[in-house]
Structure formats: structure tokens, C-alpha cells
């Protein structure tokens, strides 16, 4: 059948090409080592802080932060939920795992943000960039996340860093897309107003476009964070420690009890992160 | 025999220098521009060009001058190219060809930096939907133009506050735009434009989004501000009533081309073609015509020079039964009746002061005739049109009003 339709075209050695490409990349070991060290040190810094802070203080800080970001519209239910949820994680002895997961999420979100927002701006400003980036983003988001792990291990070894790299690739697209959309949706009249008063391109970006795009931009950040959280179990397969590892081990042992309780801890963490970033999305006013 | 007194705008425009000059300015949107250009040269219409080339003719070879200190209204329906034209004056839209000269300097030849400088210092724009930044307070919005110029906080706050005061906004400094009504928001838009102290104001349908009452208010306020600040204002409108009310000169556009340019009076009395005629037929003439439009030159007697005899002689010569008495500065003192003057002459008195009747109905030049109609039909003595110094500018006789409403030349009346 195959030969009927395609004639004498031999099977394409696509897999071979990709292998060659990955092998070709390996020669830049020093470059990838530098990235590994860089990402590793961000990760370690977060972890160092979380290990340093006593658990009770950590809980207080989370509650205080929630209180602060919701200061004009207090959500007491959320505060109670956070308090009980974090106590539960402590009680189940998942605290260190939770902070490891949190570290992975924060590091990959931070990197996704630092790369994603400028890319989104570029995409909004340049038609060519948009044409090129759109299919790339589609590819990044729809390619099964497992696949990223393979070259990630080759290039970054095992442990937290390849997990973070895979998370960044998987989680970055929403930030890029929402930044692009937010800037493109700034009303023409505001752009004209900024131009007509003689704004430079940078002034227009920082004084008009980004502030107005802020809520959709933050929605992108929120989505990126949630996506990178969804990567933690997958990343645990290549040695990224945390709650994901517990779930992964439970799967291996067919241990529903521990699997669910670790999963529940991930859910609690997800809800806290989601609500916190969502309240940053809301525009706040001086008075 | 009576002569129409021309409006102030007409006099001003002939004396003032050119502020903005537009030469052969065209804009074509889309592809196949050369073909479209060629067709427009052949006089093909906008829709024909669109059909043949797919290109949209925005503005076709516009040529006009705007004088320093005038309100120049560009009028047309949507799609006539007026908004495109005004955006080419500050190059928000890049012209396909042609020149825009601001104070003799060619805007098209400026690099980005120079252009920015002109936009910052020379002209500001006011937008139809206000264009206020929703994340900034009223004061911060008014400061925007100065802020991007790097003016320090204190100075720009002071200037912004002054500008807000000029447009009549007080006590809303810390509110946000969406907390204000449309009329208030547009005042902020105007204040933002004025804060830069520009020489030229570009106002794109600035009052079109407002309800009628607010619109009238804003028009009055704009005239008021203009009286004080003497900017060159380029005002875009689709409303002929508005154009006639605020414009010193009006330019009418249709389908990317200029149809007629002239004073409101010109346009009303000599419409260039059927299109303009149709336009002005829809205008309620009594609303548009002001006391200044229909007033005629009165017979005046200077109290400091004339006694009863001279007065009587002049009244006879002019065949009038009432004369307006003014002082040396043309300040209106009252009227005298012919019968009273004859009595004085018989009694051989030397002074007409005792017989002056000071109960003269007065009005100002810019009062719409529609506001005066009732009173004019009830009083015997013609209305005296005076300015703020009480100087007599003209009078309104019943016949002239009716004639003007009927569309006749005012000067034919006796």
C-alpha cells in the first residue's frame, strides 16, 4: 500500500537526522554546561532560601503575601484554605518535597517569563517574528512533554536542570502568546495618542503598551506556572526531586494511598500559586 | 444700501500668516498604488479606483493653507478622508506623496527625532474616544506629554493642573478616566493636549462621542479657550452645525477630495455644488445664523458731535425714524425718536441727552438667531448688537432676519 501511493520514495531517515542534530549539539558541551550551572544556581538559591526558612514562618509569609495581594478585596476562605493545606503538607511529611517542587516551578516560571515576555513583545511588534514564532510555539506546546526529556538528558545530564529546561519549553508558550495578544489589543487610539505626543518606542512600550497589556500578560504568567507545575511528575522521571518523585514511585509500586496524598499536596500547591498570581492579574488603583 | 458687516474670522484670516500648508498631499491604502495614482489623476472616483485596483484612495492631492490662530474645520462624512488627512498632518499616517509644511518646514523631510520634537512641542492631538490611559489618574494623564519630554515632576504637575483648570476640571486629579463622564473625559483629553502648550491643536471628531448638551458645552468652551489662547486649531467634524458654529473657515471633503473651502458664510451662501447644497439644506438655518450674520449697519449719531439739528438732518437723509446714539468710542447710549428730535428743534434746545431712550434691546454677535426670534417679533425697536465693551456693532431689523432665514442676501434690504 505504502509503495503504491508513494512510489519508490524510501522511508525518510527523520529519526536519524534528529539524532545527528542532537549529537552535533553535544559538541557545545561547554555552552550547555554553562547553562546547566546557571540554571542550577538559580534553583539552588531558591532551595537554599526555602530550607533556611522555618516551616511556621513560611506558612506565615504565604498567608501575609496572600493578605497583601488581596488587600482591597480580602478573601478569608483562601487564607483558611492555605493555612490548613500547608499544615496538611507538613503533617504528611511532604514539606521538603513540596519546597523542591516549588523551586522547580518558580525557577522554570522565572526563566519562561524572562524569555517569554520579550519574545511576546517582539512578536507583537514584528509581523515576521509572529509568522516565525507562531508555529514554533504550537510545536513547543503540542509535542508530548516526555519527548523533551530525551535530548534534555543528553545535553544537561540528569537531575533538576533538565527537568527545568523541559518545563520551560513546555510552559513558555502561554506567556509569549498572551504578551503578544495583550499588546496587540491595546486600542489604536491609545497608540496614536502615545505617538502624537512624541513618545519614543521605549516610552510607548513601558508607559502605554505594557501597563495596558498587564492583565493579559499576567494571565499568561499564571498559565505558564500551572503548566510547569503539570510537568513536575514527568520531570521526576529524569531525577528532578520533589512531590513528582513521590507520585512517580507510587505509580511504580501500585501504591494508591501515597500516590494520592502526594498528588493532593501538588493540588494544594497549585491552588495557592494560581490564586496568588491571579490576584496579581487584577488592576489595582491608588485610591 | 446696507452693507453686511463681515465676521471677525474673515478679517483675521486675511491678516494672519500661514501656519500649516498642505501641498498635493495624497494617501493610497493597499497595493497597486501606481495604477491607483494614475486613475486618480484621470479623475476616477474613489469607488471606481477601488473596483479596478483594490486600492483605497484615502486622500487625493489635497492643497490648502491654514492660517495662524484660526479654527479650521475639515468636514465630511465617514470615508471622506478627513481623519486620514489630519493624521498626515502629524504623520501618524505616512502620506503616499505630497508635502506638509509647518511654519514653512517640510514635515516629510524630518527624521524620527525631529518629527518627535515637532509632535512634542508644536502640535497636540485630541481624539474622538478621548484616548486617555485607563491605568493613569486624571492628573497623570494630563502630564503625559510633559512626562515623556523629561520635564521634572513639579513643573509638569503644575502645568498639568493649570491645563486642567483651563478646561474647567477641578478636584478630579486622583480619579481615573472611567470614573468621569464622557464630557469630562474629553476635557481631560483637551487639557492633556494643552499642557504641552502647543501651537497647533489637532482635534479629530473630538466632540462627536458626546451627547448633544455636552457637545454644545464643549464647543462653547473651545471657543472660550481659543479667545484666550489663540491656537491654530484643526478640527475634524462630520456635523455641519458644529463646523458652522466653531469654524473660522471650513473645508468640505467628499470621497477623498476637497469640494469647497471657505468661511461659514461662503459655504452657506455660495455652495460649490449640489453635494454641499444638499448638506446645508439639512441645517436649520436659524440655528446656524447668528446675530452677527444678519445684522446691518445702523444709522448712528455721535452725541459728542451732534445736536438736535444735525441729528434731524442725518435722520432725514437716511430716511429713518430712530437713530442710535453713541459716544466717541461708539459705545451705545440709547436711541432717539424722530418726533422727539423735531420737538427739540422747535424748542430750540441744544442738547439731545434728555430725549435719549436707553431701553434698547441688545444682544451679542454670536447669539443664534433662533434665540432671538420671539423677541424680535415682539419689539418695535430693532435689536442692537454690541460687543463686551458695549460698542455698537450693528442692528437687527425684522426684515433682515426673515430674509436671511429664507436664504436671501441680507444686503438687499432697506
Describe the structure.
- The complex is a heterodimer of chains A (287) and B (414).
- In chain A, helix 3 (29-52) packs across helix 9 and helix 13 packs antiparallel against helix 14.
- Chain A has one domain (27-281): MetI-like (MetI-like fold), CATH 1.10.3720.
- Chain A contains 14 helices and no strands.
- Chain A is mainly α.
- Chain A has helices spanning 2-6, 14-26, 29-52, 55-69, 76-91, 95-125, 127-142, 145-156, 160-184, 188-196, 201-230, 232-236, 243-252, 256-281.
- Helix content of chain A is 83%, strand content 0%.
- By secondary structure, chain B is of the alpha/beta class.
- Chain B folds into two domains: 8-17 and 69-97 and 107-287, Rossmann fold (3-Layer(aba) Sandwich), CATH 3.40.50.300; 292-412, CBS-domain (Roll), CATH 3.10.580.10.
- Chain B contains 18 helices and 16 strands.
- Chain B has helices at residues 8-15, 33-41, 46-53, 82-89, 112-121, 138-147, 153-166, 182-195, 212-229, 240-246, 264-269, 274-281, 285-288, 291-294, 308-318, 338-346, 369-378, 398-406, and strands spanning 18-29, 56-67, 71-75, 97-102, 105-106, 123-126, 200-204, 232-237, 249-254, 257-262, 300-302, 322-326, 332-337, 362-363, 383-386, 392-396.
- Chain B has a six-stranded mixed beta sheet, sandwiched between helices. In chain B, strands 2-1-4-5 form a four-stranded antiparallel beta sheet, sandwiched between helices.
- In chain B, helix 6 (138-147) packs across helix 7 (153-166).
- The longest helix of chain B has 18 residues, at 212-229.
- Classes of the chains: A mainly alpha (287), B alpha/beta (414).
- The interface between A and B is medium-sized, with 21 and 33 residues.
Question: In brief, what are we looking at here?
Answer:
By secondary structure, chain A is mostly helical.
Low-confidence stretches of chain A: none
End-to-end C-alpha gap of chain A: 72 Å
Residue windows where pLDDT falls under 50 for at least 5 positions of chain B: 1-13, 408-414
CATH architecture of the largest domain in chain B: 3-Layer(aba) Sandwich
Proportion of residues in extended strands of chain A? under 5%
Q: Which outline of chain B best applies? A: globular
CA radius of gyration of chain B is 26 Å
Membrane topology (chain A): Multi-pass membrane protein
Protein name (chain A): Glycine/betaine ABC transporter permease
Family (chain A): Belongs to the binding-protein-dependent transport system permease family.
GO molecular function (chain A): amine transmembrane transporter activity; carnitine transmembrane transporter activity
Amino acid at each position: 500500500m505504502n509503495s503504491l501511493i508513494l512510489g519508490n520514495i524510501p522511508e525518510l531517515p527523520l529519526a536519524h537526522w534528529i539524532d545527528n542534530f542532537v549529537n552535533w549539539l553535544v559538541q557545545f558541551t561547554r555552552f550547555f554546561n554553562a547553562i546547566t550551572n546557571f540554571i542550577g544556581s538559580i534553583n539552588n538559591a531558591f532551595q537554599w532560601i526555602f530550607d533556611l526558612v522555618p516551616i511556621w514562618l513560611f506558612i506565615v509569609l504565604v498567608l501575609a503575601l496572600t493578605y497583601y495581594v488581596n488587600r482591597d478585596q480580602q478573601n478569608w476562605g483562601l487564607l483558611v484554605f492555605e493555612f490548613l493545606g500547608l499544615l496538611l503538607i507538613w503533617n504528611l511529611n511532604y514539606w521538603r518535597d513540596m519546597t523542591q517542587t516549588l523551586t522547580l516551578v518558580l525557577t522554570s516560571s522565572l526563566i519562561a517569563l524572562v524569555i517569554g515576555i520579550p519574545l511576546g513583545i517582539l512578536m507583537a511588534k514584528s509581523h515576521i517574528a509572529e509568522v516565525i514564532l507562531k508555529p514554533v510555539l504550537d510545536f513547543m506546546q503540542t509535542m508530548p512533554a516526555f519527548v523533551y526529556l530525551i535530548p534534555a538528558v543528553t545535553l544537561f545530564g540528569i537531575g533538576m536542570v533538565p527537568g527545568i529546561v523541559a518545563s520551560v519549553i513546555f510552559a513558555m508558550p502561554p506567556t509569549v502568546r498572551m504578551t503578544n495578544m495583550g499588546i496587540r489589543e491595546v486600542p489604536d487610539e491609545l497608540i496614536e495618542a502615545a505617538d502624537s505626543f512624541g513618545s519614543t518606542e521605549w516610552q510607548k512600550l513601558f508607559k502605554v503598551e505594557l501597563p495596558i497589556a498587564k492583565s493579559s500578560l499576567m494571565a499568561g504568567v499564571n498559565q505558564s506556572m500551572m503548566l510547569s507545575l503539570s510537568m513536575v511528575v514527568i520531570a521526576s522521571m529524569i531525577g528532578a526531586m520533589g512531590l513528582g518523585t513521590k507520585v512517580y514511585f507510587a505509580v511504580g509500586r501500585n501504591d494508591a494511598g501515597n500516590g494520592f496524598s502526594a498528588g493532593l499536596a501538588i493540588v494544594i500547591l497549585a491552588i495557592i500559586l494560581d490564586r496568588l498570581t491571579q490576584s496579581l492579574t487584577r488592576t489595582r488603583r491608588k485610591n | 444700501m446696507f452693507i453686511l458687516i463681515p465676521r471677525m474670522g474673515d478679517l483675521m484670516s486675511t491678516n494672519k500668516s500661514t501656519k500649516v500648508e498642505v501641498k498635493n498631499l495624497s494617501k493610497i491604502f493597499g497595493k497597486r498604488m501606481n495604477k491607483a495614482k494614475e486613475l486618480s489623476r484621470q479623475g476616477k472616483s474613489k469607488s471606481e479606483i477601488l473596483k479596478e485596483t483594490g486600492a483605497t484612495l484615502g486622500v487625493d492631492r489635497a492643497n490648502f493653507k491654514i492660517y495662524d490662530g484660526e479654527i479650521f474645520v475639515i468636514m465630511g462624512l465617514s470615508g471622506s478622508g478627513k481623519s486620514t488627512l489630519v493624521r498626515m498632518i502629524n504623520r501618524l499616517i505616512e502620506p503616499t506623496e505630497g508635502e506638509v509644511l509647518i511654519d514653512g518646514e517640510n514635515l516629510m523631510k524630518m527624521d524620527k527625532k525631529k518629527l518627535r520634537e515637532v509632535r512634542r512641542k508644536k502640535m497636540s492631538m485630541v481624539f474622538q474616544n478621548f484616548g486617555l490611559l485607563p491605568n493613569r489618574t486624571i492628573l497623570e494623564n494630563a502630564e503625559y506629554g510633559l512626562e515623556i519630554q523629561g520635564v521634572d515632576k513639579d513643573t509638569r504637575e503644575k502645568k498639568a493642573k493649570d491645563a486642567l483648570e483651563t478646561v474647567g476640571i477641578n478636584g478630579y486629579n486622583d480619579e481615573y478616566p472611567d470614573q468621569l463622564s464622557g464630557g469630562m473625559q474629553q476635557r481631560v483629553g483637551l487639557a492633556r493636549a494643552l499642557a504641552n502648550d502647543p501651537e497647533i491643536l489637532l482635534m479629530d471628531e473630538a466632540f462627536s462621542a458626546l451627547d448633544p448638551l455636552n457637545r454644545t458645552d464643549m464647543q462653547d468652551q473651545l471657543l472660550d479657550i481659543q479667545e484666550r489662547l489663540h491656537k491654530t486649531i484643526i478640527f475634524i467634524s462630520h456635523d455641519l452645525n458644529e463646523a458652522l458654529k466653531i469654524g473660522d473657515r471650513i473645508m468640505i471633503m467628499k470621497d477623498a477630495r476637497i469640494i469647497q473651502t471657505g468661511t461659514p458664510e461662503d459655504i452657506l451662501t455660495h455652495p460649490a455644488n449640489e453635494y454641499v447644497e444638499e448638506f446645508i439644506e439639512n441645517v436649520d438655518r436659524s440655528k446656524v445664523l447668528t446675530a452677527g450674520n444678519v445684522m446691518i449697519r445702523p444709522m448712528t449719531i455721535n452725541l459728542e458731535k451732534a445736536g438736535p439739528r444735525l441729528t434731524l438732518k442725518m435722520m432725514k437723509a437716511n430716511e429713518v425714524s430712530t437713530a442710535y446714539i453713541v459716544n466717541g468710542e461708539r459705545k451705545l447710549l440709547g436711541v432717539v425718536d424722530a418726533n422727539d428730535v423735531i420737538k427739540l428743534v422747535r424748542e430750540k434746545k441744544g442738547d439731545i441727552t434728555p430725549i435719549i431712550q436707553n431701553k434698547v434691546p441688545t444682544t451679542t454677535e454670536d447669539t443664534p438667531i433662533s434665540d432671538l426670534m420671539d423677541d424680535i417679533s415682539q419689539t418695535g425697536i430693532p435689536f442692537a448688537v454690541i460687543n463686551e465693551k458695549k460698542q455698537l456693532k450693528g442692528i437687527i431689523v425684522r426684515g433682515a432676519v426673515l430674509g436671511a432665514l429664507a436664504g436671501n442676501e441680507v444686503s438687499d434690504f432697506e
